């Protein structure tokens, strides 16, 4: 089982990483015996036939050309820049290789001065007979037509000065002006064929007349004897289009051979060529229409085709394959293979057709080749750097194709492929047993000769499982040579489509999890073998297959299940059978009586095992009257199993950084999967273990053995808490991430996370108490439990306060804004305001966002002032709710600070704006002075006054309204004060308006006085309604709704009683609870006539201005009503006050 960063008592095992796995597996691949097996699959194997020596060390790598002959087991390399030639021996080795200086020895025949004319050369081996060990050699200069022939390659070592000397002959082909040779095809025993750019074909063959060697050439006919005669006489041919390929067919007799030619217009020419000087055109057919019809059968409309190459199988001279390219959607180019067969009447038919799926290109392939070394069985296609193997097998209805591909690495010049040749299959006489497999040989610059061999070219069926198994084995066994020369193609959708890949991979994992090693071994070794094989398969799959995150997690959980079985079995073996609770439970679960079958067959239901262990211990503990050693031993055994299972589950979930995993879509066929019940079982086990540990002071276990057991129990509790916290965190995130589709278990896991938070804090504090404070902190970090993390940090013994602040800053940098909110809230709630504003001043964005979001303007202006942002601090101070919510004694100081901040930044602002701002501050300061005096006299005035009118006069003489002097309200109150000072009659409406203008520190005395005055007044209906609505709206605007809602939730009657009298008086008139009246009726009754009747001292312009003020006040009240849902809140307040009144009445009645 994994431990999360620490060693555990649960038999920790960590899987090899992918790099470590390959490092271990490649230790045994060193071998010096050739051929060397590089890799293999169900369809092919790759062999290195010669040492990976640089066979062209003396040649210039930029201007080298090569040719390989697999039958002779030799290759040729020509360094064109330095005109050097190298021929290997008969085992593809360069020891005792032939080296030839072309320029030095052939300068008498060819002019090498003009290098631009000789930048290429054609060369081939010549087989004099089919048993010769030392072949001949031919060299052709395409631009001049000079051909040099050596009867034996050993004659190259001789110096040839004269044409016709021993084993050497030179001829010059009669090329036309600007005509060049473009192809050299060997057709032994009938010599060779040279094709030219002018559309002519020369058949060249050696002849020994009178013991003198000579070369004879003649032109091949294209359309009958008449054209042949014309060609011979005029050396001009009516060539229909350019030639694509000339290929040698079957051998008819000792000196005769069939030769095929493919032209760009889809014409296929078949010649019979004899070494005796006779050649004839046997057949000429065009296959273009046949292939277009075949495309249409597949539903494709293709009109333009391009023929790239032709190949003939020598064992079947009347079957050939063509490589075709077409543009379906420009500019992408697609490729197809067409098999063409000729019947007895030499009429062509399309016997097979396959679209190449593993290669598409945006540009034309530079060197597209096709090889057919086995008829109707294996076809090789090579596109520049990609060899594709197409295997044909018998399907249910028709023949089907399986495609494999390997990329040849051309990123480095030393690993480039210089030439490719095919090797035909060799069958037994009965044509049932294949003696030699078909293959292609690759001549590379740095890795010698590599053979790509098809080992299974006669498939009767196809299995996704078999293909996937061998492909994974190939990926796992790659050595350095394969990685340098080949890049294994992971995209094989043509063989195993994407929709079948992962289900097949799951079946393969199931098969591996139940496999057995070849040698007989113990159950424990078998389980470990299965685990490591499954791990190897999964690691290779994750590296080479493009799996989704959910599929990757699915594979990890399969491995977690198998790993848990290994660990549980090891635990079972160590515990022994005597008094072993694990053995008893397993014995009860198995039906056959053999516990090993549960593990070997992967049929152990871990979910049931955990439930049985938990239930057994719970029942045993309830029957024991006292705590004893056996009960402790049972508990440790159960905890071990829980730790193994959940530890493996957690470790493999965390092995990969898995993003966007929908755990609800994972249906694991194994007998273990994390569900809500399993998590609850783990949490219950942790609770019971902690309860036992807390009893250690009362159970009287004093000997060393019991103390060690208790220490072990505490370590187990630590790891179980880790597993529980981490798993719930992982599962909750996978269910509740923003982009996931809501699943059936999402609500359950969200609810579990909410209920688990309290447990988690308690458990983390428990870990801190028993000495695991650092581990508790790490857990809180991982699960992002910031409140617990802050609490645990407060428990740490820091040497200095600066160390604590430094640690808090460290976490602030890691967890950013989320941690900042929790930390700053904690500092505010605990009164650590100095630490908040000074220790974290550098985190400007976090701190300012926190203070503004929580509307802590009383701290924000201090922070801005200390940071030097005096203008911003002044603006914050002048916000109405900052100063007005402060006590009267503090307001004058705050206004003074605001004035100071404004003066500090006076130079940077417009002088008129500064004066206007200072005038506003001075006006507010005068108002604050009056309010401060009013606050002192308020209580004593009500007591001293003999009646309400006298009290009002006294209050108004020492008061003013909290608005600037230019407002209409200020003039109303000024007129009122003037008339009272002159002992004139004061209208009640002006008095009521004044009292509802402000409230001193939320004591609501003024509102009660205004209510009393209104009740005892004699106004008209419109005037009365207006004043009541005015009083209601201003009362609602004056209330501190944050405190009111909190008091309503907590039923804090001390706070609510401060405005209960006003509330009940307004409620009695049915205005405060009537949304229609309070919101919609007020604007309708406000008109100049009503205002004029109420405010006789105001001019009409002042009345209009005041009307706008009242409407603005109404809009604020309407917005408050909607935002706070006052209909519901006011109804709750009314019901609460009624209940309180009823309760008080009942108490008085009882008294």
From TrEMBL:
GO cellular component terms listed in the entry, alphabetical order: cytoplasm; nuclear pore outer ring
Domain Nucleoporin Nup133/Nup155-like C-terminal: 809-962
Location (main, coarse): nucleus
GO MF, any single term: structural constituent of nuclear pore
Location relative to the cell: Nucleus envelope
Domain Nucleoporin Nup133/Nup155-like N-terminal, residue spans: 39-450
Annotated SUPFAM superfamilies: Nucleoporin domain
InterPro entries linked to this entry: Nucleoporin_Nup133/Nup155_C, Nucleoporin_Nup133/Nup155_N, Nup133-like, WD40/YVTN_repeat-like_dom_sf
PANTHER family: NUCLEAR PORE COMPLEX PROTEIN NUP133
Protein name as annotated: Nucleoporin Nup131
Species, as recorded: Schizosaccharomyces octosporus (strain yFS286) (Fission yeast)
Lineage: Eukaryota, Fungi, Dikarya, Ascomycota, Taphrinomycotina
